[in-house]
Queue: 2 jobs
Job 1
Amino acid sequence: MNINHKQAPPVRNVIIVGGGTAGWMTAAALSKYLGKTPVTITLIESEQIETVGVGEATIPAISQFNSILGVDEFEFLKATQGTYKLGIEFENWGHIGESYFHPFGVHGFDLEGIDFHHFWTRHKELGSTEPLQNYSLNTRAAHMGKFIRPEKQHGSVINRLKYAFHFDALLYAKFLRRYSEARGVTRHEGLVDKVDVRPESGFINKIGLKDGREYAGDLFIDCTGFRGVLIEGALKSGYENWHKYLPVDRAVAVTTARTDTPAPFTRATAYDAGWQWKIPLQYRDGNGYVYCHDYLSEDQAEVDFRARLTGELLKEPKHLRFTTGRRKKLWNKNCVAIGLSGGFMEPLESTSIHMIQSGISKLIALFPSRDMPQTEQDEYNRLLHDDFSHIRDFLVLHYVATRRDDSPLWNYVRNLKLPDSLAYKMELLAGNGRFFKYDAELFDVTSWLAVAAGQGFAPKGYNPLVKGLSDSNISQSLANMRDVIEKAVTAMPPHIDFVNRFCKAGPVHV
Ligand SMILES: Cc1cc2nc3c(=O)[nH]c(=O)nc-3n(C[C@H](O)[C@H](O)[C@H](O)COP(=O)(O)OP(=O)(O)OC[C@H]3O[C@@H](n4cnc5c(N)ncnc54)[C@H](O)[C@@H]3O)c2cc1C
């Protein structure tokens, strides 16, 4: 180890290639964090290549991102046609005709220092048929179409409401572009078709546009989406293919006119070759059918998808292809892949924008000097790889914990060979309801239990320490919890009233 460490010179300029959600989120965050340094930030995007633009559902961490930027929540929702999201309603996943809700926030209240769900399992053993989701404030509010923003001064159970947003990803990128340009980010329009790599170091020296312009940089951020123009095209960083675990690989998406009141949750309905989302925005719905091409052609997917849509189509359906997995090196030399260029695990739990956020926050924590220390690259890759693996396991849980046997897709996933990490976690959970988060793992016991119990694989046993409370005490405590939750939800305003009052957007031209 070198103890006479002398810091290498700092990065002077950052070049971001790509102006989708990832590009503009990165530009906005760097403009905020690097604002007081002499580092220049340049973003290059090409109007010839469309953004994916269908990432519209999020998880609660997005609020932290916006608040770090100093973005007002209501202004953001007005600018992006946004609504609130309390969780996801899963239909037909355990079995056709069944549904359950995966809420943000927690189930019930812990008692005597022991997780709530152990008492719920014991209560079931005593004969209760009350589903887990009736102990979730988020679920009850979602099902009753209610929402209120928790404010600390309420001093009530409402503080436990956790929320994220649905929004128009294209409008979000525009919103962040205005934010970034106001803070000194320079945008150039053009198609990158040359990447000049220094032969001696393997570092990217400069990129060239089709019209001949060139941009040299110290640090390059690849936000070019599935293309991975820098990270793969130039640096050949490799891709770990997870098709065997997450076999969906196609999507067809379209926006439709609203036919009902926007619900404060996403809908994910399983069909024989995949699943379909419905994401309610203020003036329209986002819809998409994610499916596995091994079992369904693109043409047939569109026919099936169209037949299930309710509102008038506002555009022609857009087809997308992807390979689930992660980049082997998300940080390679002086290039960092953020967004789809770094990997994609399918949109089932709306985790992709979160992964952008995770990549940005780790880049800021490890913001490099010009020599790009190898150990820091390795640490970045380790952290991001862990994020990917934890989320992958949770996504796979939705598929393996099915009892469906009505189509080749469900027969495949029901029997797939689990990653060891997932097999271990499922065994702990299915036995006596044991669950522990590893490192900075994203999804906690609420999420794992919601999916497992919702699909008919609730834990068989519980922590024996619950017997420290008498049976009648457990029954009474659980009844009180339901009562507190019902009263709180009854007092909340309808979600749409809250949106109309505080963050109603103007009409948009679609
Ligand atoms: C079917 C589907 C559904 C999804 N749903 C969700 C969801 O609900 N929630 C969620 O969090 N995420 C979701 N995602 C993921 C989400 O859409 C992406 O994470 C997000 O949009 C970021 O994309 P991106 O910016 O990395 O790439 P893109 O949107 O593809 O943007 C790439 C950018 O790079 C530019 N570019 C490419 N090549 C070049 C070049 N050679 N020169 C110059 N510029 C170039 C393009 O012009 C574009 O600006 C979904 C993804 C898919 C496929």
Job 2
Amino acid sequence: MPDDTRRPPMLPAVEAFVSTVRSLFKQGLSADEVWPKACEPLKEMLRDPDVAEHTKTWPTSPAKLGLEGKHANLLFYEDPDYGFVINGLIKKANAKTTIHDHGVSWTLYGVVDGGEQVLRFKRTDGGELGELPKTAVVEETETVDVSPGYIDFIKPWDIHAEYNGHGPTVAVIVRSQRCGTYVQNIFYKKDNTVEQYYGPDQIPFAFG
Ligand SMILES: [Fe+2]
């Protein structure tokens, strides 16, 4: 049973994950302690066959879901006490995101189906992470292949891009706070400009 009995229960594996994260916060751990510890429980949740089955019911429309650039996320859960959220995302084959950060938020990005490359970048113009600049120079530092079962761990202000493979990618994303509550940077390599925005639109959807 969820702690909050006013909402409909989600799948048991999702409820188990939520209650694990809530218990980490209840122990008094800080965000930089909680989120690394939440990766293994998220892996376990994504191994659950009911979770994989549920992803087949996720809508691929409105068309903004999974499109290049400023796409939308499904919003399954927002914690009433600690603010973290569970999102879903279906990306079209060969979709490429912008180069961006996730602002102050922590992100656990778990692939359920498909696969993609995550490219990491660093600023080489002397600017500091955590800024909201008008211009910045970024250079690629590494590429990680992300496949089902892998959790990509994105710290606040980490600069990255995701290049989808030849099929659609289905992902569950846990964020330390809901998109729309913090500012993110988008870095344009073509002219080194930086744009700020409030992240993907959030489309409420039931995980159960
Ligand atoms: Fe991202």
